[in-house]
Amino acid sequence: MHRVYHRIERIAGNVITVQATGVAYRELAQVTSARGVSLAQVIRLEGGRVDLQVFAGSRGIATDSQVRFLGHTMQVPFSQSLLGRVFTGGGQPRDGGPPIHENPIGIGGPSVNPAKRIIPRNMVRTGIPMIDVFNTLVESQKLPIFSVAGEPYNPLLARIALQAEVDLIILGGMGLKHDDYLFFRDTLEREGALSRSILFIHTAADPIVECLLVPDICLAVAEQFALKNQRVLVLLTDMTNFADALKEIAITMEQIPSNRGYPGDLYSQLAARYEKAVDFDTAGSITILAVTTMPGDDVTHPVPDNTGYITEGQFYLRNGRIEPFGSLSRLKQLVNSRTREDHRTIMNTMIQLYAGYKETLEKQAMGFRMSDWDRKLLKYGRLFEDRMMDLRVNIPLEQALDLGWRILAECFEPAETAIPTRLIEKFWPGNIAAATAA
Amino acid sequence: MSDNIGKIVGVNGNLLTVEFEKPVVQNEVAYARLGDLRLKSEVIRVRGHYAEMQVFEDTTGLKEGDRVEFTGELLSAELGPGLLAQVFDGLQNPLPKLAEECGFFLKRGHYLDALPRDRRWAFTPTVETGASVTAGDALGWVPEGIFRHRIFAPFSIPRGERWTVEEIAPAGEYAVEHVVARLRDPRGGRHEARLFQRWPVKIPIRAFAERLRPTEPLTTKIRIIDTLFPVARGGTYCIPGPFGAGKTVLQQLTSRYADVDIVIVAACGERAGEVVETLREFPELVDPRTGRSLMERTLIICNTSSMPVAAREASVYTAVTIAEYYRQMGLNVLLLADSTSRWAQALREMSGRLEEIPGEEAFPAYLESVIAAFYERAGVVRLNDGSTGSVTIGGTVSPAGGNFEEPVTQSTLKVVGAFHGLSRERSDQRRYPAIHPLESWSKYEGVVLVDQVAAARDVLFRGNDVNQMMKVVGEEGTSIDDFVVYLKAEFLDAVYLQQDAYHPVDAATSPERQRYVFERLVRILKTPMRFESKDAARRFFQRLTQTVKDWNRVEMGGAEFAEIERRVEAMVAEVAEYA
Ligand SMILES: Nc1ncnc2c1ncn2[C@@H]1O[C@H](COP(=O)(O)OP(=O)(O)OP(=O)(O)O)[C@@H](O)[C@H]1O
Ligand SMILES: [Mg+2]
Predict the structure, then answer these.
(1) What separation, in Å, do the N-terminal and C-terminal C-alpha atoms of chain A show?
(2) A85 and A67 within one domain
(3) CB contact under 8 A, B96 and A115
(4) What is the number of domains present in chain B?
(5) In chain A, how many domains are there?
(6) Residue A45: φ, ψ to 5°
(7) How remote is the CA of residue B241 from the centroid of ligand 2, in Å?
(8) Is the residue at B205 inside a domain?
(9) Per-residue pLDDT averaged across B273-281, rounded?
(10) Last-in-domain residue among A290, A321, A352
(11) How far is CA B208 from CA A233, B89, B148, B470, in A?
């Protein structure tokens, strides 16, 4: 029995209030107004009053618009026919194809029992030395790209997705520019990957609340595929828009904000989504790569800050490069002991020396005299930036490690690098060292 | 089951407003009925005929008018043999067992006994009929792994009161629910004691003779901690730091190497993956102290970030209650809580829903006293039988924006005995562990001599001063003597304060080795040295650093260890300036 109500008592922001009985917390309703039909979800019950957040926004809703409770929570269809299709944030077809109704599943389900997780163990090769060598991506990792607007984060996301060996790509767009949506679709199509992709796209032109659904829908579908032994890569761009939608609802509900207007549960809300990344014991996996744009390039802004505390590292994209400082893959140590024996040493040494280079740059900017050591660092820093950091470089890990040794040998004496003697003996490119010493 | 029934009149996230008629108790447990499911919750405020309750589960689907069953009991933990090596959620449900029953996902409303009911334990009584006992006295013991797990008279025996043992079970194999003793209180009341008891998690167990001052060092085998910023058994410390600075890695290392009997890991609102590492690796690792699996001394309470928020708070209390319980057996227990900020945030979320007047950053005004009361549960105690036991608490703090001037860090700093502040600058430079050597502090005594520590700190501070000055006047404006001080500070940092967590030898340095190596390093720091140029000085210290780092990577006591030590001394002798 669907219950229908015709009297809306309060309309504020994107939240409407009706008097109703027998309504369940988080139940869905259909709100019909002159502007059309929208879904809405119960976000609070209090003394007979029911608050609903309207996904299409409250604009055009009249006090006598119809509210019809559906008796279930948000659902999304799950079937193979999702592959190759594009949907809106609310799960409606965006590509002109037929709607899909089969096999509805709930979204925002319970967490995986930690006892059913396994330690991630497979490296995801990207061909990008700043990732493969310094911050290795691992299957089932959750990792955002931190960047300011204007950086090529979506192309980077697409590049990693296409290079990664996964069975399925699910793209969740939140507040995506229409051009960017087309870029993703066309790139996937061109590279022949669209048939193993599913797109849930909320664009900047769509009602803002609808973007709240995108991560949950993507991850619910991903979870089902992962349980069927698929390795799924979920791309979420841009999670800052998701957080801003949360903020908007919180303010409408007159919640006390904790930090710059964001609700106190921002951490839990983001974690509930990112924690869906998983490597299942005896089934597939979900890897999450997200984009978090940083308002004002400020990593202490609540959205990147809370994200950093949740995810397993981050790629810091700045000036078109993945910065070694600020970037981190927390899972790298699970795989980089099994790649090549010099991997960890090259990773640490090159970054420590690069830190030295940055200090020297500061000294140089102050007009101080450069010592021999400073000059070595300057040479090193430039080589590192040109040959390793440039995003156009596309080489396998092993070649990147060899390249690392060559750069070191072109700039330093072995002892200056503090690399263990054992590795120096094995890997230091002797002829180059001799050549530069001469 | 009590027959006190209430009715839901409001649902706001995980906060329920419930109308009731019969009396309710603050903090009592109640179950919200959702069809066949019973969702555990706790009364957190009472106003007139309305109780406000935090639900430890997702509240989706609850309706106004749904039933709530009050139990009259406070949120409690089960204390008895079988706790060690377990993995519990914040409400003490054993997760592996839950996985057997429910599969991949957690299922709300599904609660299991914390202690296995079918397992039998070999009980040996230590009292006789007619004995009089008080809270904290043992009635007997059972073997649990490597420990003698004491079975206690009820902790609820009022202070100063003695109960008489009317009956005690003979030695034998019993399950935890078996009544092993019958006791009579002075008023003639009869009580039963089993192999386990329940204790309300928010109330400290105080069944001991007296609290002592923490003086003995708790060695972690992390050099910068044991040498410069030590932790004491029974003490408290905190590790604040921005994301990715290394808080969790530090705690994982500590859980592995710390010199204690039992480690309780409370993963509170953090990543599930981190718990999985411990959970899957520890059973395979051998504890060098006992030769047994490391898991046998470990217990994990995990309420990860996507698990219900209210249970985060419960999880730290469950953990500390279990820690206090093992302390009662004369054991040294270390509780590692990661991260206390998540628990504070859970308080904040609840406070917000209760519409309490917010304090700074919307945290509730009582945040400080809640944090203080939690750390107060650490301590060394002298037990009734004269032996001692300790609970040490180390908590991480995750300050917003990495800025320590925020309520949780500040409230914590007021009450702890040591502060290991992690710095973004150091972690960016991969100077791990990223504990800031100039800003951190400890009120406890460490494993090396204090005057050596003072000498080393002096070099670190002066080296930092020189470094700051060089940023203004450049290397050319710095005297060679000052420059050498700077190089010495960097050297000490590189070879001693930094430690390679992933190297089999370097990862853990025994106190003996710390004493040995530190004494020699301090001697090097104190050696006046002469160099022809700054470049020559830099080259010397680069070579010295590399050699001492090689030294760190070999086992102490072997031929190679002695050989490298000789090399180091020869190198230093070459540049030493003898007055
Ligand atoms: N002692 C160490 N040695 C080597 N690497 C380390 C060390 N400590 C931290 N790291 C590196 O930094 C990463 C992040 O560390 P960790 O997860 O402990 O940070 P955290 O402070 O707990 O962050 P968060 O607050 O987000 O949980 C690790 O995955 C590892 O790569
Ligand atoms: Mg951590």
Answers:
(1) 89
(2) no
(3) yes
(4) 4
(5) 3
(6) -120, 130
(7) 9
(8) no
(9) 90
(10) A321
(11) 55, 28, 18, 57
The pTM of this model reads 0.94
CB contact under 8 A, B64 and A308: no
**Separation of B495 CA from ligand 2 center, angstroms?**
25
Q: Tens of pLDDT along A384-402?
A: 999 999 999 999 999 999 9
Nearest CA in chain A to B553: A420
- Domain presence at residue A219: yes
Q: Tell me which amino acid residue B498 is.
A: Q
Closest Cα to atom 8, ligand 1: which residue? Answer: B246
For B551, name the nearest residue in chain A, comparing CA atoms only: A420
For residue B135, give how far its alpha carbon lies from the nearest alpha carbon of chain A (Å). Answer: 36
Whether residue A86 is contained in a domain is answered as: yes
Average pLDDT in chain A: 92
ipTM higher than threshold 0.90: yes
Cα–Cα distance for residue pair B435/B455, rounded to 1 Å: 19
Residue A52's H or E segment, with its range, is strand A49-54
* Tens digit of each residue's pLDDT (9 = 90 or more) over B28-82: 999 999 999 999 999 999 999 999 999 999 999 999 999 999 999 999 999 999 9
Is B574 in a helix, a strand, or coil? helix
Residue-wise pLDDT tens digits, A331-360: 998 999 899 999 999 999 999 899 999 999
Instruction: Give the closest of A257, A344, A363 to B474, CB-based.
Output: A363
**CB-based contact B429 A352, cutoff 8 Å:** yes
Q: A-chain residues within 8 Å CB-CB of B106?
A: 110-113
Instruction: Clarify whether residues B462 and B565 are in a common domain.
Output: yes
With beta carbons under 8 A apart, name residues in chain A contacting B62.
24-25, 45
Residue A436: per-residue pLDDT: 42
Rounded Cα distance, B8 and B53, in Å: 10
| DSSP conformation class of B114 | S
Residue B243: nearest ligand to its CA? 1
From the CA of A309, give the closest atom in ligand 1: 26
- pLDDT by residue (tens digit) across A240-253? 999 999 998 888 88
Q: Which of B359, B363, B337, B338 is nearest to B349 (CA)?
A: B363
Task: Please check whether residues A160 and A287 belong to one and the same domain.
Answer: yes
